[in-house]
Amino acid sequence: MHETTALTIAGRIYSSRLLVGTGKYRDFAETKLAIDASGAQIITVAIRRVNIGQDPTQPSLLDWLPPSQYTLLPNTAGCYNAIEAVRTLRLARELLDGHKLVKLEVLADDATLFPNMPETLIAAKTLVDDGFDVMVYCTDDPIQAKTLEDIGCVAVMPLASLIGSGMGILNPWNLEIILDRVSVPVLVDAGIGTASDASIAMELGCDGVLMNTAIAKARDPVLMASAMKKAVESGREAFLAGRMPKKIYQASASSPREGRIGT
Amino acid sequence: MLEFFMLNITINGQATTQNTGSCVDAIIANMQLVGKRYAVERNGEIIPKSRLSETPIADGDKFEIVIAVGGG
Asked: What's the predicted TM-score (pTM) here?
């Protein structure tokens, strides 16, 4: 069964079930405003070379979003094999003074950014053995998700649709099978387009949702961040409340049938 | 007179030079990263921040110096 109250990942408790990325914003000020409006406590960051030409006096992302205030989740975006991904996260751990919680994503292809599962499994095993707490972006294949749990990943994060596509939840059935079979937290990562998509993920029983583009590329990112916060919360409450059964082709009146006038 | 050689090294894919006898912390100082969050890899091995000032640079060294940036 999945946690009924707060979200627990690798033994740490989070009151927010919305995780957000920090990419694609206009500037750091907008990034910070949107993240704060989303209420997210876990935020993803990418690891990249220092740009040799850049002005060192300019503030950096972590000046705006200090690790003292947020749980940073370094990712391996842009890595296409296990070796690059592991190397990136070891650098992230050094950068963040021994921080263990990471987001593993090994991509297969530039056009789809679909997960490369053979390399993801290799990287996950290496990272778990090396002491990392691995949250892992994966296909919505229940067998792969279960294998990642068995390897020791602390959360599995199947895509709902392609990264940055905003196409929403394309295969709720597979997500339900994963939720049924996996006992670590299941978070939808990638594909959320608008608030209802986030609610649907939560209504299915997902433990959380991770998104970036849906907020950053909304016309008003800060307002969308607030919408996503509410969508995740309301979807979670609806899941906990237990929806009514669907009655196909069978209406059921809400008002009493007795005492109608003229009867 | 002191003989003076320059070391040929690569930082983040770009060829550059460094004074003979300097340690890796000199690169961090040149890049004005002191006090910021970064990580350093030399020839594929991470050098912990605590050891940068005691790790001499060798000719041909390849460095990767990374920071956190926005990402999803």
From this structure: 0.92
